[in-house]
Request: fold
Amino acid sequence: NAGVTQTPKFQVLKTGQSMTLQCAQDMNHNSMYWYRQDPGMGLRLIYYSASEGTTDKGEVPNGYNVSRLNKREFSLRLESAAPSQTSVYFCASTGQGRYEQYFGPGTRLTVT
Amino acid sequence: SQQGEEDPQALSIQEGENATMNCSYKTSINNLQWYRQNSGRGLVHLILIRSNEREKHSGRLRVTLDTSKKSSSLLITASRAADTASYFCASSGGSNYKLTFGKGTLLTVNP
Reply:
């Protein structure tokens, strides 16, 4: 099992460009999450999907959109990137009735 | 807003010593978890303690929970250089399995 995979690992964007971060899990987990991690800020929840077909806003959703494509995949889209979105983005998943989350390796995004 | 706050922000010890990290949270919880993050990597789940538990052990890890003080501590005994990482507490208070993370403690274990 690969667990949680994220692509790309690194990305540099110019202000105003768009991109989609991809996340997939092969553990048959119901819930998936997107976080951003900034220095000294811990992890902050952007969006989450409790189950296939549902998505909800987290703590910092502005400037982002998500799609739960199927049970395996949960993508995060930046429509018009801003320097404030420079961060490391983590995807995570958790199984039915479970609380512990499994994390991907992260995507390091720089917006210039 | 961030619910968990770890203390200290950074901790440096020698191999073989014990490391204690503390976490405080603001609202009632179902459970509290601790995660480890090695530099440049994703987070790894270490241990979960439920709100009706006071202490839990897993290998060299000991976690305590005091719901009256809204605080938890993580003790790593007989630390090793490989324990060098950031440690985060994360609390869950609802039925939607969302976690609220603290800002983390950076632990450095010197050989």
Summary: Residues 98 and 107 of chain B are 26 Å apart (CA to CA). Chain B has a mean pLDDT of 92. Chain B touches chain A at residues 1-2, 4, 30-31, 33, 40-45, 48, 88, 90, 92, 96-104 (CB under 8 Å). The radius of gyration of chain B is 13 Å.
